[in-house]
Amino acid sequence: MTLVALDGRLVRRALSDVADVVVVGSGPAGATVAADLARAGLRVLIVEEGHHVLPADYAASGVRAMAQLYRDLGTSLAFGPLPMPYLQGRAVGGTSVVNGAICWRTPPEVLAAWAAADPPLADALPAEVIAAHEARLAARLGVAPTDPAIAGEKNLALGRGAAALGVAHRPIERNVVGCVGAGRCLQGCPHGAKLSMDRSLLPDAVAAGARIAAGFRVERIAVAAGRAVAVHGETAGGARFTVRARLAVVLAASAIQTPCLLRSSGLTHGPVGDGLTAHPGVSVTARFDRPIRAWTGATQGHEVLGLRGEGLKLEALGFDLGLLAGRLPGVGPALATRLAELDRYAVWGAALRASGRGRVRPGRRRPWVTYALTADDLRRARRAVRVLADHFLAAGAVEVYPGLAGFAPVVRDPSEAARIERDGPLAPTAYAMSMTHLFGTARMGADRATSVVRPDFRHHTVAGLYVADSSVFPTNLGVNPQLPIMAMAARCAERIIAAPA
Amino acid sequence: MPTARALRTATRRELRAAIVDGHPVDPAQLAGWTYRGTSLGLPRALERLSWKTFQKTFWREPGTGRLLGWNVRLEQDGVDAPSRPRLRRGRPVVEWHYQVIAPTGVATPRGFDRGLIIDYGLGRAREPTMALIKDPLVALTPGSADEFLGVSYLVVGGRCVETPTYFTLEREAPITYVPYDEPAPSPLALTATERAWAEALFAATLGVDAPAPATGLPRWDAIDRATFWRAFDGHAAPIVRAGLRPMLYALTFLPLARGHRRPFFRLDPAAQAAFLTAAADDRLAFVRQAVATMKTLAGLAYFDDPTVRARFDAGPP
């Protein structure tokens, strides 16, 4: 079965098409909503800006693989007091092709908090319905704890460190089947072990009758008489295209692209593009006295849960050699000496459930994203650096490099680590952080003044227009959102099916 | 299964049977190679009007990962003479552009789906008439990519029409000429001079600008940097490409303001290291960020090189 029905690179003359439902984006949200709608008998066309690349065709060069599968080579930036990179996939399957395959269920306390803040959401998103979707999707994706046999030393060491400190930890649950621990999740699994959307729900959708148009960049949603009726855009071959939607247009293009598409279409009702939330990540590097070979084993295979109450989740990070080298301290000959022993270094990170906010606006060439951490977030980041250092030292690291500008470059014992939290800097520019897991730029809510979509995922002012991705999340989650995004998209599909034609 | 040479005397019936009984082809083994093609099964008069020998190439397109290719016209020196590309304005004459795809979902005559399909409708430079033509390709030996047998068929109105144009392919040499133009340089791309400055910073940042037997790391100038620059210029976010230039100028000329009396690329290695060490802890966040950016980019470029990866027994990334 051919996954892609229309390859935009080959479409060089104006093209028109029609479907019951047009789904914009083929990542976890788009794939889920498309599969469920197609199974319900609707004619679905998934429109994806990226191309379909088979695992056997992933470039052997890491840099070229990033060019192949990431938006802007993974160099997208959010601006603010601390500029932070954020990564997005751009391929059939979206970011699921290049993520760490981590799967969490939506924490019940998050759904409860959403309902408490906006009571209609309690009925719209029943916890048991979301949980049932997550269970079904987890089974489809083969979600299971990371096998210690292929975890690799960087993951096992984090478990040992947490155990020594008495902090709860566990192997990460991932959507992989037959993982050999190649450490290449972030460049696209060449073994096809990761059940990313292009290897799971998109084939399901196509088997149920959906079609995929790859290399089709949607630029505008057409609205007539208060209803979304089509999308317009350009193919990778340079031709204009229009796809008419008989029933609905579903946006599932990410918390960055979806609000840009709404705004570019003149749909500026509500706080569209505002309220961006995220899980900013801070990482710490350490040196062991034995080989760790951090680029081998499961890319992200172990996590520490015991600090989630503080808004911190620690994970082992599986960077390839080039990114790992960039995290080592020093420059020049001193760095070269360290590079010669690169196999002894590891990087672990902490994802922060931050209270910072940002916004997204369409720019002339790319979306313009701004984001600012709060003072609380910076204190949380400083604490994260300290606890990461504690875990490294407990795991047997001989040197830890906090990476904080203006602070001790090396920590060798727990008392020095404690000093990080006491005396470490709180200026944002002292940190090197990245932004992961983006939410909230077309948030869901009952109040049309403070939200963009209704509790049934439909746009407040445009009929037949739905948002199914993490843009609708009222807050961030504190956990990796792939499975929650898919469960919400499944709920969106239910509401579309139930809506009057 | 007969060899490519033995098939030169085979009948059309035998050639067709060889296609149907052929073996799968691993596309990964094709990429980067040229193959010597020999036409079979055509009347001699027709061969004299066209060609008896030709070259086929298999090339992985950067950015998309598609396995593409094109025919190279050869001087007709005889079936056993070495390949000699016909030249026009000093460059090989190329034609018949194609993409190599799996047979899944492709209309083929019965039994023609054993190997791969050469699809002339999907090549990088296409002509409408060629879009009707497809060539199934099968390996003559299981698991080997040294010899193949192919044949052309047409897809007209959804129906497959077989032709007698069989051919063998024999592995010849790595590709040395790619006819596709590189994209026009962006105004954001660094000039050659600026790129040299950047590479001076990259090499010095990693400390691999001079021979270092103690570390056993390859020197910067011994590695492939072109792959990195192609990816960076072609795919990095515009704001990042635009931002690299002020960082580059800051670090290149800041030594003049910090008592070194020369721009960075004119400093000796020890002075470069001293400057970068100080700059990494500079009071200005912009300068610190510039050093961190150079280090990140240098790491990506350096550790993408196969010889560097081999030093760490890391294989392809």
In brief:
The complex is a heterodimer of chains A (501) and B (317). With 501 residues, chain A is of the alpha/beta class.
What topology does this entry show?
The complex is a heterodimer of chains A (501) and B (317).
Chain A (H helix, E strand, L loop, with lengths): L5 E2 L7 E10 L3 H12 L4 E5 L13 H8 L7 E3 L4 E2 L22 H10 L2 H5 L2 H14 L2 E3 L2 H4 L1 H13 L3 E3 L1 E3 L25 H7 L3 E4 L1 E9 L2 E9 L4 E12 L2 H11 L12 E11 L14 E3 L7 E6 L3 H6 L5 H8 L5 E8 L4 E5 L6 E5 L2 H20 L4 E3 L12 H10 L9 E7 L25 E3 L14 H17 L3
Parallel strand pairs in A: 1-9, 2-3, 2-12, 3-9, 4-18, 12-21
Antiparallel strand pairs in A: 4-5, 6-8, 7-14, 10-11, 11-12, 13-16, 13-19, 13-20, 14-15, 15-16, 17-18
Helix pairs in contact in A: 1-8, 1-14, 5-14, 7-12, 12-13
Chain B lengths: L11 H9 L6 H4 L2 E8 L3 H6 L3 E8 L6 E7 L13 E2 L2 E2 L1 E8 L14 E4 L13 E7 L7 E10 L2 E16 L17 H15 L19 H10 L2 H20 L11 H12 L4 H18 L3 H6 L6
Helix pairs in contact in B: 4-6, 4-8, 6-8
